[in-house]
Design brief:
heterodimer, A: alpha+beta, Cytochrome Bc1 Complex, Chain D, domain 2, four-stranded antiparallel β-sheet, two-stranded antiparallel sheet, 10 helices, extended, B: mainly alpha, three-stranded antiparallel β-sheet, 17 helices, 57% helix, globular
């Protein structure tokens, strides 16, 4: 009896060990199907919101933030229009339920949109990157948006209604904000890819950091908070006040640099300068020498 | 009252002699210093007129512009890494803590009258200075002007190129902005990568670990005092040797190894060269006024924690940056030491090899051609196909490395993958000399066979004789292609001319 008890308990232990990973696997598979990646207010990087508005009927947060940035979810009233627009413009890739479609076995090519938060959806549509011109390209390029502002908000409202999440669409208060602090934060956090002049540059394997000129304030804040594509998502390490300063710097001083000294030569730095120095400087002077000297 | 009145202006002028005040001053000087003898031969000095001999003058005169604008900059620049809070005209920096060097450079650009113009002229003049040295050096190389007896001047010239590059880098670093600080960081890493002594050398140069607070004052001393002093000395020696050994000339009618054919120092060459000085200064001023260079205020202050992308050095350092970019990430770890070969080979060994090859070239050529004769007549590049091809091969390689220093800009501009651009540049860097050499060699050989190479082609007039025979006769050479001699000029005779001055033309011939 003792022997069979020992054997039975050993069997149970082995079975438990064997089932452990299976349970984990089951639970993860369960999570993947039932509750997609969801951004909460906490991981959206805005833990200290001083102003929070709650919808009294549904109990969900419609807007939160402070005097620097207010994040708001688009009105649920737009959701019906949004669903129609989604079916026309987005569903062929992202699926009718916005839960993503595997593309020829390439996982993540057409990602699940549920739970990404209004700021993400709004950014991709309003920057013209979605609907993508070429869904197979390494990185969707910025272009003239196909959907207008209200249509983009409507699509955002519908996708957010599937599973309300964060961050909301930011509205940056640019009347306050310190350009100098923004410049310092920009040099520390952004210049490594976008260059210190905000011209953008190529990154590895066909990806690139786009130019930051002529970008609306809302999209700059959305990009910082949501990290589109290769860009890191700046959440806990930048407060709303710091994000506002960066946005103010990008939309004022990157856009209209205080820049004396003649033609800027495309902000390409020493590449353009060397070209001008050699072609216009040395070349022109050599031509003068050719003019002054004998040619025989 | 028949005594002549001698105090009228005309009478005074006549009493001065035919050369007026100038002649009198020179006469007084000659009485004391004996300037007439040397001055006579100096004013009669013959310089050949070919346009390519003016390239070195671009370098000389841009150096003059560098000295003049540089003196202005030292009046306002503060070589200190002490931290101050910037409060000035450039708003995005207001209230930021920056070094005094950076703050003074920004103030120099925004608050000092003509400060930005002077800074930009200084920077443009530097780009032109190094560029003109390279072009001048290429002229000397491809025409064989470095051959005996001018090897020493070639060596001085190569040293001047290295010093110009070094001083350009030092000056580029002085504003202590984000981009140049990154350059200093790379320079520090290159010093560290030298086996055995790298760490000690790095600490010696920087007065401790990077970045420290000593490097800007030290670079300042080197940039405005030590290196310019050496450059001025070597340029002087370069020119004294040029005068002493007399200028080379291209072969042509009446030109031999024994003579120099050209225009005299006074007045023809002096007028040309003074005009050229003013044109060089003028072009530099135009660039400084209308083309922005190195907008340090946009870059912000250097801080070891910050970095900007799309950072390139000035063009003359480009080949080093390119070499660093394309070299594979190899390094040696063993016996408790690390040798970062990916830095040592492209940034220490490679430039060392290139410059030592330049220094050694005259000796190598003597050894391989067994040509130990004196040469005052230049080669047409096509007549020395191997030398020309070798020079073009090296230049092609350096050009590819230079282009490789902007892989990211190319990738971004043409919407290409950075990785494919990098690989393309790796292949081009390795292949370019092997492609350039045979092509150049072949072209040179072909040009040798051409008659009247370098001249415009003239039409062949085909006429038919009464018998029906067709005869092709070449039409005369274009008038522009005929060599026009300069008009004869009267040589002032302060003392008797030491050489026979022919009166048939302004172009004179003197024996060496």
């Amino acid at each position: 009896m003792t022997l069979s008890f020992k054997r039975a308990s050993a069997l149970v232990l082995v079975a438990l060990f064997a089932m452990g990973p299976l349970v984990l696997f089951m639970s993860s598979a369960h999570a993947a199907t039932k509750s997609p990646f969801q951004t909460t207010r906490k991981n959206a990087g805005t833990p200290n919101s001083s102003q929070v508005t709650v919808d009294p009927t549904t109990g969900s947060i419609t807007s939160y933030g402070n005097d620097a940035i207010m994040y708001s979810s688009p009105s649920p009233a737009l959701a019906a229009l949004g669903q129609a627009l989604y079916q026309q413009n987005c569903a062929s890739c992202h699926g009718n339920a916005a839960d993503g479609v595997a593309a020829d076995g390439t996982s993540g090519a057409y990602p699940n949109l549920v739970g990404l938060g209004p700021a993400t959806i709004d950014f991709w549509i309003e920057s013209g990157r979605m609907p993508a011109a070429n869904p197979r390209s390494v990185q969707a390029a910025r272009r003239v948006a196909r959907l207008n502002h209200n249509q983009a908000l409507a699509v955002t409202a519908w996708i957010n209604s599937l599973s309300p999440s964060y961050p909301g669409v930011p509205s940056v208060n640019l009347t306050s904000g310190n350009v100098a602090d923004g410049a310092a934060l920009f040099a520390l956090n952004c210049a490594a890819c976008h260059t210190i002049e905000g011209s953008g540059d190529a990154l590895a394997l066909g990806t690139y950091a786009p130019s930051l000129r002529n970008i609306p304030a809302t999209q700059v804040a959305e990009a910082i908070r949501t990290g589109p594509g290769n860009m890191p998502r700046f959440t806990g390490n930048l407060s709303d006040y710091q994000v506002r300063d960066i946005v103010k710097f990008v939309t004022t001083k990157i856009e209209h640099p205080q820049n004396p000294g003649g033609l800027g030569l495309g902000g390409l730095g020493p590449v353009a300068e060397g070209f001008i120095g050699l072609a216009l400087g040395v070349g022109l002077l050599a031509l003068v020498g050719f003019w002054v000297g004998e040619r025989q | 009252m028949s005594t002549e009145v001698v105090n009228t202006a005309r009478a005074k002028k006549q009493a001065m002699g035919p050369y007026g005040t100038v002649g009198k001053v020179l006469g007084e000087l000659d009485d004391r210093l004996g300037v007439a003898k040397g001055g006579r031969s100096f004013l009669d000095k013959i310089f050949p007129d070919h346009w390519s001999f003016m390239l070195g003058e671009i370098a000389l005169y841009s150096f003059v512009v560098l000295l003049a604008t540089g003196i202005f900059l030292t009046l306002y620049y503060i070589p200190s890494q002490a931290i101050v809070t910037y409060h000035g005209a450039y708003l995005p920096l207001d209230g930021q803590r920056v070094t005094e060097a950076f703050a003074s450079s920004v103030d120099l650009s925004f608050a000092v009258r003509a400060g930005l113009l002077m800074r930009q002229m200084h920077h443009w003049a530097c780009d032109i200075f190094v560029g003109a040295i390279v072009v001048h050096m290429a002229r000397v190389f491809f025409t064989g002007a470095f051959r005996k007896p001018r090897e020493l001047n070639w060596t001085i010239g190569t040293t001047l190129l290295i010093l110009a590059i070094v001083n350009g880098f030092l000056g580029y670093s002085l504003p202590d902005d984000l981009v140049s600080g990154t350059g200093i960081r790379i320079a520090y890493s290159i010093i560290l990568s030298i086996p055995l002594v790298g760490t000690y050398l790095g600490f010696l140069v920087f007065g401790g670990n990077f970045p420290g607070t000593a490097i800007i004052p030290r670079f300042f001393m080197l940039h405005v005092l030590l290196v310019p002093a050496i450059i001025v000395g070597l340029v002087t020696f370069h020119l004294i040797l040029l005068v002493r050994q007399k200028h080379t000339q291209f072969p042509g009618e009446g030109r031999t190894e024994k003579n120099v054919v050209g225009s005299p120092m006074y007045p023809v060459f002096m007028a040309k060269t003074t005009g050229f000085l003013l044109i060089v200064a003028g072009v530099t001023a135009l660039l400084g006024a209308f083309a922005q260079i190195n907008p340090i205020w946009q870059f912000g202050p250097y801080d070891a924690a910050r970095i900007s992308y799309a950072v390139q050095p000035d063009w003359y350092m480009g080949f080093l940056d390119g070499a660093l970019r394309v070299f594979p990430a190899w390094s040696f770890h063993g016996f408790g030491y690390t040798i970062p070969l990916e830095v040592t080979i492209p940034a220490v060994l490679f430039p060392g090899l290139v410059f030592n090859l330049a220094f050694a070239w005259p000796a190598l050529e003597r050894k391989f051609t067994k040509d130990h004769a004196m040469h005052h007549l230049l080669d047409r590049p096509s007549n020395r196909p191997k030398r020309t091809a070798a020079g073009v091969a090296l230049l092609a390689n350096l050009l590819m490395l230079f282009i490789a220093s902007s892989t990211d800009v190319i990738a971004n501009f043409f919407h290409l993958s950075l990785n494919s651009v990098l690989w393309a540049m790796r292949i081009l860097v390795v292949l370019s000399p092997f492609i350039a050499y045979p092509i150049t060699y072949k072209i040179a050989k072909e040009i040798q066979l051409l008659k009247g190479g370098g001249k415009r082609k003239t039409a062949n007039v085909v006429s038919r004789t009464a018998e029906g025979e067709y005869v092709a006769t070449p039409s005369p050479v274009y008038v522009d292609d005929l060599h026009h001699e300069l008009a004869a000029t009267e040589v002032p005779t302060f003392i008797e001319p030491s050489v026979d001055v022919p009166t048939d033309g302004g172009v004179r011939t003197v024996t060496r």
